Amino acid sequence: MKNVLTVMRKEFARFFGDKRLVLGTLILPGLLIFVLYTLMGAAFTDTGEETLTVRVLAPSASFAAYIDALETAAGEEGIGIAFETAEGDEEALLEEVGESFDALLVFDEGFDSLLVPGAPAASRPNVAIYYDSAVTSSLSAYNAAAQLLESWESGMSGLFNINVSAGGDLSTAEEARASYYAMLLPFLILTFLYSGCMGLAPESIAGEKERGTIATLLVTPVRRSELVVGKIVSLSALSALSALSSFIGTFLSLPRLAGGSIGETLAAYSVGQYFALLAVMLSAVLLIVSLISIVSAFARTVKEASAYSVPLMILVMLVGLSSMIFGAADVPAAVFLIPVYNCAQVLAEIFSMRFSALHLFVTLASDLVYIVLLVWVLARMFKSEKVIFNN
Amino acid sequence: MAEIIRAENVKKTFTLTRKQRLLEKGAKKKVALAGLSFSANEGEIYGLLGPNGAGKTTMLRILATLIRADEGEAYVAGKSVMRDPAGVRASIGFLTSELRLEDFFTPAYLFGFFGRLRGMDDAAIARRREELFSKFGIDSFAEVRVRDLSTGMKQKVSLVVSIIHDPPVVIFDEPTNGLDVLTAKVVTDFLLELKGQGKSILLSTHIFSLVEKLCDRVGVIINGRMAAEGALAEVRGEQSLEDAFFDIYKREVTGR
Q1: Directed axis angle between helix B107-117 and helix A2-16, to 10°?
Q2: Which of B104, B122, B163, B170 to mutate to test the interface with A (most CBs of A within 10 A)?
Q3: Residue B234 contacts A where some CB pair is shorter than 8 Å
């Protein structure tokens, strides 16, 4: 145990003694993610909150009545488009689309009187929407106006209404956010964890081989297993710190993307769920560090180790994507025996508030077995001259 | 005198990489040791002489338990390198050019680190550091990162780290290789000092003058076999060690 701690202290001293490594691994990932997501969120939110201006030439009374009804139903939130009656020459108005206003609607002369149910297509009246796709707000105005006209046109037959007097989305804002997090965060967390490990493990294992410093350690009486455990635990702790940096950056900026505040997001989950989250992340990071360490032990150089780790990274990202595509799938407990995939699933369950203690237990217990097995394999590899001295 | 190192019919064959095969006329394997036997006694300096590729370094790596022999057995301080490698590692100080120090750290940090790995407490490390750092003049660059040191300084640091635990057996592979004359003198003087302290020293080299200056007994390895072994005077006879070596080499390679 004493030797394990000595090896760990050396790994920590190596890491924290290198300011560039600390900056690149602990500070920048979280900071960059926060800035990036905040900017993305701001861009989305700004577009969503902006009221688009659409001018209407020769307005239709029935369309105006439809819009009035929608605005009344929307209340203070509004429908996001301000329709204004246009005056003047159509040609002159077209010159101003995308500048003075976002889009121009031009109804055919006598539009309302031409609305005859069952009329052939050729004799139906037309609404022209003019917009400038080079201007984002103009394109948004076109999409919104087209959607409104489509729904108005669909409702013309008047056979039945959808979600007018009853019905609607039953999820609360918290549930909607939880579902969003469950879709996105497992993938992001696994990717962050892997990136953190990738930056450290190849350097620590293959780097020591490449520089010839591993042999200096191997001529001491320290057991190979102690060296391996010391390296794995310290690398896992550092990778977890790196992942934590990314996670904090993500967590602080996600409310900008998903709506709500940081306080609401934090309060959405219980203390127990946060502990479960921590346990799964640690389990995942230990698994990933062990896997990359084994791959790195085979490599002769850091460059080679990084190249060998790429297929593994793709695999881990695909597993993370599975939760993005399928969410917290309703799967049997045995599935939680599959390493890495089980972490993605449990993370999705935690974030979607469908947390299962059994699934968490199966995941942590099975991962512990895999980690012990991988450490044993790595210790065996450290004893093999064909592996350690293959360069 | 009692034997402190004994190698019995040690054999080792390496599988060659594709690139290495080009240099070995397509052979897939290379015999590094073809049944090497020798013994070194307690308190003496034993020199392994031989050309490049003769198997000297392979033998030392087996004794240091970095690699395993395919056949045969070797003992250091009464411990088997095959069955008790940790015991052997605790008894030896091993220095070779293939063992490097992490150049991010300072000599002071590395000394402490390896001292703790050798099971020493802080007080013992501090005492040993004071003794060795002042002897080798490391104090002046003890807090400078290894990456910023000269080759000679690095070799001094490697040397003190290898003997931090005051081992009874010291195994040095080409200890003066690449060193300037001043640093080389410090190293050779230190080896004599270790001998004076009763330590047993095994060193491999192809520098005849070093062997003549330091060694009590010599083993000449050619093509993985012991071609000649004995006291320095016996091996060289009436001629210089260099001439004696070439006679032995010629006899072994040409059979005449």
Answers
A1: 160
A2: B104
A3: no
What's the rounded Cα separation, in Å, for the pair A256 and A259? 6
The 3-state secondary structure of B192-228 reads: HHHHHCCCEEEEEECCHHHHHHHCCEEEEEECCEEEE
CB pairs A-B closer than 8 Å: 63
* pLDDT of the residue at A270: 81
Decide if B144 touches A, using CB distance below 8 A: no
- CB-side neighbour CA atoms (13 Å) of A279: 19
Using DSSP, state whether A140 is helix, strand or coil.
helix
A219, B105: Cβ pair inside 8 Å? no
Quick check: helix, strand or coil at residue A103?
A: strand
Taking the Cβ of residue B204 and every Cβ of chain A, the question of whether any pair is shorter than 8 Å is answered with: no
**Nearest alpha carbon to residue B156 among B130, B173, B135:** B135
ipTM of this complex prediction, to 2 decimal places = 0.84
Q: What torsion, rounded to 10 degrees, do the Cα atoms A48, A53, A54, A55 define?
A: 170
Q: What is the rounded distance in angstroms from the CA atom of residue B37 to the CA atom of residue B62?
A: 13
What angle do the packed helices A136-154 and A28-49 form, to 10 degrees? 50
| Selection from A188, A227, A223 nearest residue A208 by Cα | A227
d(CA B201, CA B216): 10
Per-residue pLDDT band at A250 (split at 50, 70, 90):
confident
Tell me the chain A residues in contact with residue B113 when contact means C-beta distances shorter than 8 Å.
Answer: 6, 10
Inter-chain CB proximity B87 and A221 less than 8 Å: yes
Contact A13, B108 (CB under 8 A): no
Q: What is the pTM of this model?
A: 0.74
Tens of pLDDT, residues A30-72: 888 788 777 776 665 555 557 889 999 888 888 888 888 888 8
Size (chain A), residues: 391
**Of A88-102, A259-273, B72-86, B106-120, minimum mean pLDDT range:** A259-273
Alpha helices, DSSP H only, in chain A? 2-16, 19-22, 28-49, 61-74, 90-96, 136-154, 173-211, 213-218, 224-258, 262-267, 271-298, 302-326, 341-351, 357-383, 385-388
Q: Do A219 and B65 touch (CB under 8 A)?
A: yes
Nearest CA in chain B to A4: B117
Task: Provide the edge-to-edge strand list for the sheet that holds B3-15.
Answer: B29-41, B3-15, B71-76, B79-80
Nearest-CA distance B191 → chain A (Å): 20
User: Cβ distance B159 to B42 under 8 Å?
Assistant: no
* Residue range A263-269: mean pLDDT, rounded: 71
